[in-house]
Specification:
The chain is of the alpha/beta class. The chain is 43% helix and 19% strand. It has an eight-stranded parallel barrel, surrounded by five helices.
Amino acid sequence: MRKMSKFNYQFFIPIFLLLIIGFFYGINRYKTVSIAKIDENSFKWGIGFNPYPNNVVNDQTLNKTLDRAGELGVNWLRYEIPNYIDNPFVFTDPVINQAQKKGFKLLISFQPTQDYQDFSDSYQAGYEQANKIANHYKNVNYFQLSNEPASGALKPNWPGVDQDSYDIEKYKKIASWLKGAAKGINDANPKAEKIITGHWLHIGFFNLLINDNVDFEIIGWDWHQEDWNLTKVENQGKTYNLLEMLPKLKKDLWITEAGLYRGSLNGEDKQAEYISELAEQVYNSHLFKGFCTFMLYDEAHKQGTEDEGLGIIGLKKSNSSWQLGEKKKAFDAYQDVIKGNK
């Protein structure tokens, strides 16, 4: 009998230990889920993301770009669905699935398939395109409708500050597409939030949208200038303060593209200073909920143009092909801002 008791004692100890380990694992797992939920509601540090910046489409390139984004410290990726192929999901599914597996949140953007003015029914075109994308990616809750659409209706040489800056007939086509796209998102995923982006001084365009009851929750602002300061924007002899003007629109605010005009072609020091100063200004204003630089890597298809140096990581030429290169000073500068403000 004593041997039997000893055997039972030895047998049940490891089972008891496994139960204890499982209990603490469950607690830690619950904590991880809770942290993820809190993180989504905290300030969104992000970056524009091209998964294959060197035009080499394979898993190795995708994983390397994702790993560099993780090293940077961002938790949001702004990723555009291509509008020039009938089934973009063959291309985008591996990217989005792998990004989500690695813990990134996604802002998916998409452009209309043609010029707004060329649609016979711009509302229906916007609806069908947006609904198809949002239905396919039901686990994504942020969608950017087009990019800087105000440009399509802006009168030549007008700054865009007031509503008179826009050609109303052109505006109506754009607004119709945006209304259709918003409805398409809502029907596929009522929880999703919709972003419309502006740039420069295009405040008047958003006043028009709001007056016309276009349905969106977030204004994203793109800032590719030579001066990072949003409080002193000089145009035609006047000075404007976007940190005073944008909150009056009463929408959530993000910076969706941030980068020095011509990027590192102006010198890596200037690029790093621009991103650092703008990011600090935006975060410390307490007016914005997110900040995305543009882009993670330089892009092969832009080499030889004035946009070849917009990334915060470079490319390098090897024989006749482009390879993923090394980080620039702007990478470290942005990383320092994120670390200091998490």
